[in-house]
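> forwarded from #structure-qc
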């Protein structure tokens, strides 16, 4: 896993080589463990001591496989581990801390030798067996040893003659892994006296030394306080839950203003931290001229936005001012030749206003809570920072000299998608799966909305808690009469907008919005 993470072709070859070697010596060890379990009746290493005297042939096979796992020279594990050490030395991914990789690899090799030595000594030597379920143990039947013999023979053959045994298999597997040509490498048992060889011997003798000091390590472990890892883990989980509850209680305080302020603050932080990496503003790039219509729309947009801000406590007035903002944006889209955006914006604006008006029915006409000066200052600062940041980003997008994919769609919309409305051809043909995903999201949202509204009975009482009329009084007869013929007419317009969308302004999205209106 570490070799693949080094992100070099030669490291990937070494990883594949070690997987092949690991499969060979580890499979033989698993089979040896099964033989011992079958013949002794247990795999408890505290009981199966001294099996060399009873199962010498199996012991030799297991000891050779363990030596291969430890990386002893002239066995297959030694070759791939030496390549492993060499690749950690050549990696510079961690910069000044790259020395950690070869040190960690060598330490891993030390422990590999230590547990291999423990397996060999404790199982096949170290006294006599203790209370074995099957006593005395003996060699298994002949054909139980054949698979282990084949694998152990491969460990020796690959370790001594790598170019004649594993080279072809390694080349095929590594080429399939890399998906291309193989880097230059040499499989040999001797590459000279170098640092990877030194690391191999450090691992070998270091592992033997650690195992020789096992009694001191066991005594040290016995003196340490006993810790139940399950209790520690559960305690950390509960502590994490308490911290999360405290943070959630602080943030989820029921204030919509706070929620919006946190979201906008996050946007401001992202803008400020990322803007330093953007190119400098280029004021020399020409932009479209602003005529009287565009200036008038922009002025009304700014005025309506300011009016919405100043009168936000008068909800009905602020909603009407906000609708002017959306309308002016739609007109600006028309002015600058974006009819699809204009249709969409206008439809979204109508839907939004209707929903806000519906929500207003359940809210007081005026907000009663007064803001503190600190909150007002916070809102002003956030508005200035985010507004200025978005303005700069928009200016960069409109004036920057960047190569985009838009020309490709312009050139291939008619020939590739069969339509002249490039926007809709992109959505339907070039990015059809994206659109399908969006439709799926809309369907899920629709089901959620239906689940929330299906039990809402507006006619359950004649008057609400604020003294406003419900039921029949809330739906004047004139409006009910006018709305009934408007529905099929709106649906007819939606179908028309839908069918013309491939070549002219319109499409399924706008048609769906008209239907929802």
């Amino acid at each position: 896993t570490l070799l693949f993470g080094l992100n070099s072709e030669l490291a990937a070859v070494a990883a594949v080589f070690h997987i092949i070697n690991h499969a060979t010596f580890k499979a033989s060890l698993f089979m040896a463990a099964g033989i011992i379990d079958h013949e002794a009746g247990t795999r408890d290493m505290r009981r199966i001591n001294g099996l060399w005297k009873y199962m010498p042939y199996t012991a030799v096979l297991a000891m050779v496989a363990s030596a291969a796992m430890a990386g002893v020279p002239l066995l297959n594990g030694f070759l791939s581990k030496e390549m492993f050490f060499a690749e950690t030395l050549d990696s510079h991914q961690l910069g000044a801390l790259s020395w950690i990789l070869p040190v960690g690899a060598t330490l891993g090799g030390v422990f590999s030798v230590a547990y291999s030595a423990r397996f060999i000594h404790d199982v096949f030597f170290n006294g006599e067996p203790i209370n074995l379920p099957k006593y005395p143990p003996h060699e298994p039947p002949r054909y139980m040893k054949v698979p282990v013999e084949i694998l152990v023979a491969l460990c020796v053959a690959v370790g001594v003659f790598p170019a004649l045994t594993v080279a072809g298999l390694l080349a095929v597997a590594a080429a399939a892994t890399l998906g291309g040509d193989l880097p230059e490498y040499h499989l040999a048992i001797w590459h000279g006296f170098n640092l990877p060889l030194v690391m191999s011997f450090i691992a070998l003798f270091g592992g033997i030394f650690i195992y020789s000091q096992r009694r001191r390590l066991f005594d040290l472990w016995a003196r340490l306080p006993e810790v139940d890892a399950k209790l520690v883990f559960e305690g950390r989980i509960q502590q994490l839950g308490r911290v999360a509850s405290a943070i959630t209680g602080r943030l989820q305080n029921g204030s919509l203003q706070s929620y919006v302020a946190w979201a906008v603050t996050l946007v401001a932080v992202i803008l400020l931290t990322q803007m330093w990496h953007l190119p400098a503003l280029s004021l020399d790039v020409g932009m479209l001229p602003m005529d009287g219509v565009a200036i008038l729309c922009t002025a009304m947009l700014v005025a309506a936005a300011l009016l919405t801000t100043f009168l936000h406590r008068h909800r009905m007035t602020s909603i009407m001012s906000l609708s002017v903002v959306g309308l002016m944006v739609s007109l600006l889209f028309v002015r600058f030749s974006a009819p699809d955006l204009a249709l969409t914006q206008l439809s979204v604006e109508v839907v939004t206003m209707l929903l806000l008006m519906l929500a207003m029915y359940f809210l007081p006409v005026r907000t009663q809570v007064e803001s503190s000066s600190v909150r007002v200052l916070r809102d002003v600062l956030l508005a200035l920072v985010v507004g200025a940041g978005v303005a700069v980003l928009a200016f960069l997008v409109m004036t920057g000299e960047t190569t985009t994919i838009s020309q490709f769609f312009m050139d291939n919309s008619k020939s590739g998608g069969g339509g002249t409305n490039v926007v809709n051809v992109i959505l339907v043909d070039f990015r059809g799966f994206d659109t399908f995903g969006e439709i799926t999201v809309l369907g899920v949202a629709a089901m959620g909305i239906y689940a929330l509204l299906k039990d809402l009975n507006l006619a359950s009482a004649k008057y609400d808690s604020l003294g406003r009329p419900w039921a029949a009084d809330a739906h004047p007869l004139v409006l009910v009469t006018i709305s009934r013929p408007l529905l099929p007419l709106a649906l007819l317009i939606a179908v028309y907008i839908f069918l013309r969308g491939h070549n002219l302004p319109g499409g399924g999205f706008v048609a769906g919005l008209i239907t929802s209106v």
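QC bot note: The chain is about 70% helix and 0% strand. The two ends are 56 Å apart (CA to CA).
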